[in-house]
Amino acid sequence: MNDATASQTVPEQTPQAHADQGHAEGQQHPIRIYLWIWALLFVFSTFSYLVDYFQLHGMLRWSLIILFMLVKAGFIVAIFMHMRWERLALKFAILIPPLCLLILIGLMAIEGQHTFVTRWGAFVR
Amino acid sequence: MAQEASIAGQPAPVVGLDGVTADWSGDKQVFPVPWGKAMMWIFLLSDTFIFTCFLTSYMHVRMSTTSTWPNPSKVFSLDIAGHNVPLLLIAIMTMVLITSSGTMAMAVNYGYRRDRAKTTALMLATAALGLTFVSMQAFEWTKLILHEGVRPWGNPMGAPQFGSAFFMITGFHGLHVSAGVVYLCVVARRVWTGFYDRKGTYETVEVTGLYWHFVDLVWVFIFAFFYLW
To answer: Which residues are paired to B80 by β-bridges?
Structure first.
């Protein structure tokens, strides 16, 4: 979001974003950007595959998986889906609501742990 | 923004947080994008909730089961020339889907340049890659059901919830890819026949692209949480 806000306040840095302010034909950006992102997605997919290939374990494995996942997701949404060049109002409307899913994930993690402990106590021990 | 700003003499649009206030309080359409694009974004938002619910329920059953979870690295390995390569098919499927996203992004670009031939070709390439992905998924399912004995209610490797979570999540994603292939073919045909030239805008190609990139986006999360975790 920081990066996006910066691009909004300093449109001169990105000529294509500037052109968008007055475009009549939707999102148009140099093909070069897409090829770059395409290559980067390949690189990061390879990285996450290598995490499994070298059988990394524990926190290192999980943090690397999450890191590469978020980088890839960010590239797809920001560049391929053109979110980077949209107005902040649209960015907020689409990107903020999914944050409430974090509450669901947190609650279900607590609940899952509780179920595990209960099952362990009742059936396994 | 598109329509307003192109009118001569209009002031430059306000950006940043002031822009959010201006967009919502301007007594006008809030999102300055074609309605099809705004609606596609809202549909994708709802789809985000659906897939997150699936992945969250998967997290829940995996955390709460007292049996060991089958090791995906082993379950999804392939034997190539006597070597056991972990997750090989999944890695190839990932690359195929990323490539299809690349061709789709370029199709949107050529659409706005009114290059009908290139747009159609790139969209059909995207559809073909999507079809390749679904075929590989069908192969993976066949292998899992016939050779590994995975069922929605159990499997020989460990926690019985593995099968139901797997078939539910990848099945729903595969359904999205299949629907996307049909969607791409329909729009590609309209591009080829000049429908959007008569309509005067190629924004539908961009909207189709949004859907397709979202399918790729969901796969990024499935790949991380189901196959790698």
So the answer is: B83
Q: Sign of the C-alpha dihedral, residues A73, A74, A78, A79? A: negative
Asked if the Cβ–Cβ distance from B24 to A89 is below 8 Å, we say: yes
Residues 6+ apart with CB under 8 A from A65: A48, A51, B224, B228, B229
Contacts of B202 in chain A (CB under 8 A): 25-26
Q: How far off is chain B from A120, nearest CA to CA, in Å?
A: 7
Mind listing the pLDDT tens digit for each residue in B20-51? 988 888 888 888 889 999 999 999 999 999 99
For residue B59, count other CB atoms closer than 10 A to its CB. 17
- Report the distance separating Cα B165 and Cα B222, nearest Å: 11
Go through A61-98 and write b for each residue having 16 or more CB atoms within 10 A of its CB, e for each that does not.
beebbeebbebbbebbbbbbbbbbbbbbbbbebbbeee
What is the C-alpha to C-alpha distance for residues A60 and B19, in angstroms, rounded to an integer?
41
pTM score above 0.95:
no
Q: What is the ipTM of this complex?
A: 0.86
Number of H helices, E strands in chain B: 9, 2
Contact B101 A41 (CB under 8 A): yes
* Best to test chain A binding among B48, B57, B108 (most A CBs inside 10 Å): B108
Positive/negative CA dihedral, B136, A65, B59, B217: negative
Contact between residue A105 and residue B56 where contact means Cβ atoms under 8 Å apart? yes
Going residue by residue through chain A, which has 125 residues, state the pLDDT in tens, using 9 for 90 and above.
444 444 444 444 444 444 444 344 677 888 899 999 999 999 999 999 998 888 888 889 999 999 999 999 999 999 999 999 999 999 999 999 999 999 999 999 999 999 999 999 888 76
